[in-house]
Specification:
Number of helices: 4
Largest sheet: 5 strands, mixed
Helix content: 25-40%
Radius of gyration: 20 Å
Length: about 180
């Protein structure tokens, strides 16, 4: 009988612990992301659904994984070309910044409120560049700096910045990221 009571107590204890993560997952952070975006002159764009067999974001538990996004211009179109050839370092940085805005737009469409972002965890940045170009980290800094300006320390993330000889449709930059939600 004592074993039975002990097991019942353990089951109730574990059941009560399971309610904590779901309660935490609805929490909202204290960073006013919308105000930060306005302060930085960033306007998110409407997100069009993916027409391929992939989606722009996938949520697993309290993590969101994004597909690679490209540098969408506010008026339409994208930035094309190779950094170090067709494009300068500064133009590559603008492409990284615009790609970040596209990512934030998709992220907001997925989670509804960017204050739900607890931390930006990992970023992969691909820079379409000439073989001699070696400043991929400087290109990606435009993205990373923007994210840190929005979320502060919680925006600091692990990152890879890789140069490649080609990206889809010759876009200048492609970025994907992983974020943790409250």
């Amino acid at each position: 009988m004592k074993k039975y009571i002990f097991l019942v107590a353990i089951v109730f204890a574990l059941a009560s612990c399971k309610t904590l993560p779901s309660a935490q997952s609805t929490a909202i952070g204290t960073v006013d992301v919308e105000a930060k975006l306005k302060e930085l002159g960033i306007q998110l764009s409407p997100v069009t659904p993916s027409t391929a067999s992939i989606v722009k974001t996938v949520r697993v538990g309290n993590m969101v994984y994004t597909s690679g996004h490209g540098p969408d211009k506010p008026g339409g179109g994208q930035i094309f070309g190779k950094v170090g050839g067709d494009l300068t370092l500064e133009q590559g940085q603008e492409a990284a910044r615009l790609t970040g805005i596209a990512l934030l737009s998709s992220l907001k469409a997925e989670i509804g409120d960017l204050r739900k972002v607890k931390r930006v965890v990992k970023v992969l940045g691909l820079v379409n560049c000439t073989p001699a170009f070696s400043q991929q980290p400087q290109v990606m800094n435009a993205f990373s700096d923007m994210i840190v300006k929005i979320w502060g320390e919680n925006g600091r993330h692990a990152r890879s910045a890789v140069g490649t000889n080609a990206l889809p449709n010759n876009i200048a930059v492609e970025i994907e990221m992983i974020v943790e939600l409250y």
